[in-house]
UniProtKB/TrEMBL annotation:
GO cellular component: mitochondrial intermembrane space; mitochondrial matrix
Subunit structure: Interacts with the iron-sulfur protein subunit within the SDH catalytic dimer.
Transmembrane segments: none
Protein name: Succinate dehydrogenase assembly factor 3
GO biological process: mitochondrial respiratory chain complex II assembly; succinate metabolic process
Its job: Plays an essential role in the assembly of succinate dehydrogenase (SDH), an enzyme complex (also referred to as respiratory complex II) that is a component of both the tricarboxylic acid (TCA) cycle and the mitochondrial electron transport chain, and which couples the oxidation of succinate to fumarate with the reduction of ubiquinone (coenzyme Q) to ubiquinol. Promotes maturation of the iron-sulfur protein subunit of the SDH catalytic dimer, protecting it from the deleterious effects of oxidants. May act together with SDHAF1.
Pfam families according to UniProt: Complex1_LYR_2
Keywords of the record: Chaperone, Mitochondrion, Transit peptide
Intracellular or extracellular location(s): Mitochondrion matrix
Similarity comment: Belongs to the complex I LYR family. SDHAF3 subfamily.
UniProt entry tagged with the keyword rRNA processing: no
Alphabetized InterPro entries for the sequence: SDHAF3/Sdh7
């Protein structure tokens, strides 16, 4: 088996594993997470080998962290982790922009039922 075939198999296994883990998330988080993962993996198809190594390492960490968090059966399940200032310092402007957009998406509040029931004038 060639090195590129082996690499492709590892990438696909990680991708499928992440999507499978997302099944354990609340519906809205799953949809957002699935979309983000698909976009990121698609965007890195033609990346340089050094960037691919970091990409795979970070997504593997995500997989392991999420698997641990989802395996802890709690009434109120919490997922995710805070990013360290050192990690944020290594982000590009584009990555910081993506992170901000992701933050906005995940912190949107739905209109309350009272607002929806008010008559429109």
């Amino acid at each position: 088996m060639s090195a590129s075939t082996s690499h492709l198999m590892r990438v696909r296994a990680l991708y499928k594993g992440i999507l499978k883990l997302h099944r354990g998330l609340p519906l809205q988080m799953k949809a957002l997470g699935d979309h983000y993962v698909k976009e990121e993996f698609r965007a890195h198809k033609e990346a340089e080998s050094a960037e691919v190594a970091v990409f795979m390492q970070e997504w593997t960490k995500y997989y392991v962290t999420l698997a641990k968090q989802l395996s802890q059966r709690k009434q109120r399940q919490e997922v995710g982790q805070n990013l360290s200032p050192q990690m944020l310092d290594n982000f590009s402007e584009e990555q910081l922009g993506q992170l901000h957009e992701l933050f906005k998406e995940t912190t949107l509040t739905e209109p309350s039922s009272q607002d929806e029931s008010k008559p429109k004038s």
